[in-house]
């Protein structure tokens, strides 16, 4: 059994020789000494930035440290025959215009929409011989109301109103995602022309205000209050509240009782797929197939992608302007601009010469909150899990609930808070919060016949254990065994079905994918690190204190998730600056 994130694995793609690599090999050949733009890191945001720049006529090269593109949006065959979305595993937030502008379907992107999308089984040990209840939610509101009515008739009536309320807030936030934040520095210190131009950055804020109207105070509360307070105003049943609250804490070292956790919930409900608001789905071939499609769009128009090429330093000329990068092997590559898809910490504290950056700026970057609660476990199984609350079909074929995000240890918001408190004491959660997904239930190409791949997104696990102890193989295995024991209670026989597993604790996520602290968002999505203040106040957006250097990853506005907005927005800002040179 593969027992940790340190084992050998190989990267795979939707095809053995993806279109982006064919286009790059046939058209461009080797590395050139100079490009118009260099992108550091071939994560999805870096690929999006390069694709837009290249379409605008900017000759662009991307340098990726790993042997495979995609960053956290990657498909890897960790166990022979089983293809895992090793880090990110679901798609919803990718901006609609990116699908269209980059022609991703033309470049091979195929999606599997999930309906139903959420399944929360109960244990209900005192139910005797009765099948425990479960909560199954999908796009059919009438069916949702029936499901919720098992726990509360009042909540069943309130749920459509809650969904409409959240939908309106998502609509208001939407225009803010596709534009740079308001340029406060230009308003304060810019020329008259710069101040006039920066007025346009107010438009998304004004549009958001018009959408929210007189309800603005209520929506402000959603963004600033603990999610428990918000949900308590709508609902009374714990299974529903806990299921909804999982989206407020997923990937975040926060409790449902933490002020501001409502925004993380919004971040996870404001997406959509193929015109369906809030829909989440699986990518055919795993998340790496999405990265391959973006890369194919970029290389078709002339971009160059180089894997296993680590950038060691951003080069700066004597006038304090970026002039390219130096690779780890000493190769110098000149460029007029550099866009960094790495985290703010790596970009500014490791790659950029410190003497060119303000001391206060560097201090703020070093103080960013990067705490992560996440341990991702990828599991190969020889059959589908059979839940007590929803037993398998006689022939073991996938049932509707198998395609869902399956929430375990989530019957009560108190369980979520207790799991968080364990991590605050330096301990992995005694009863971890588990989001279990089975993408092979809709995409059989991911596993051998009859077998499946299971994604376990679990929390809370601290980066450093109590007493300053680091994670080792024994600690990884003990935590994974605890997670498997929890699943076994809901789905007896799960442990016997396991063929192999890949355990990625926060330090593993940092080491393999470059996620600081293992944080899937590069830094916390708390209100003090969003919009005006992402990555830090007075340096929000994409431009950096160093002329010609731009941040285009999840550490820039609007933040993390497989959204692509940071890459797209940064490319447009950089292109405007290039035209004015």
TrEMBL record:
Pfam name, any one: Amino_oxidase
Keywords noted in UniProt: FAD, Flavoprotein
GO biological process, one term: mitochondrion organization
Cellular component, GO, one term: mitochondrial matrix
Highest taxon above the source species: Eukaryota
MF GO annotations: oxidoreductase activity
Keyword DNA repair appears in the UniProt entry: no
Residue span, Amine oxidase domain: 46-389
Localization per Swiss-Prot or TrEMBL: Mitochondrion matrix
Subunit structure: Interacts with COX5B; this interaction may contribute to localize PYROXD2 to the inner face of the inner mitochondrial membrane.
Family: Belongs to the carotenoid/retinoid oxidoreductase family.
PANTHER family reported in the protein's UniProt record: PHYTOENE DEHYDROGENASE, PYRIDINE NUCLEOTIDE-DISULFIDE OXIDOREDUCTASE DOMAIN-CONTAINING PROTEIN 2
Role this protein plays: Probable oxidoreductase that may play a role as regulator of mitochondrial function.
Official protein name in the record: Pyridine nucleotide-disulfide oxidoreductase domain-containing protein 2
